[in-house]
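Batch job 17 of 40 flagged for manual review because the log was empty.
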Amino acid sequence: MINQRFLKRKYHLLPVLAGIILILLLFFTSCEKNNNNGDPSQPLIFSSLDAEKDTILFGETTRITAVASGYKITFNWTASAGDILGPGGAEVIYAAGPCHAGRNKITCTVKDGNDKSEAKEIYIVVE
């Protein structure tokens, strides 16, 4: 027979491990596009920010894509609630749990090698 106290202790660590993994994923959400041979005079153009779905149920995810061009561009992602997952760059996955129900703002800031930046926002409704 399995000891019930052992099971309670074992599953008590799962939220801690999940939190550590999410923190590590968020830490790596900014990624530089490999454009080292670009022209420094190339202007920064942030064309669009689109989500695969604008409404999701908690526990679901949606892919968010930024379209931008310029000299040595980088992408930085933030969310008012929920989590930005993936290695970053021009495409990320947004996920939200039950505590994040409502209209959540996702912001993508694109910065180029000339220190110019532009930001766009998109809203995802979590039900």
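Reviewer: the log was empty due to a logging misconfiguration, but the result itself is present. Residues 16-20, 22-30, 32-36 have pLDDT under 50 and may be disordered. Unflagging and moving on to job 18.
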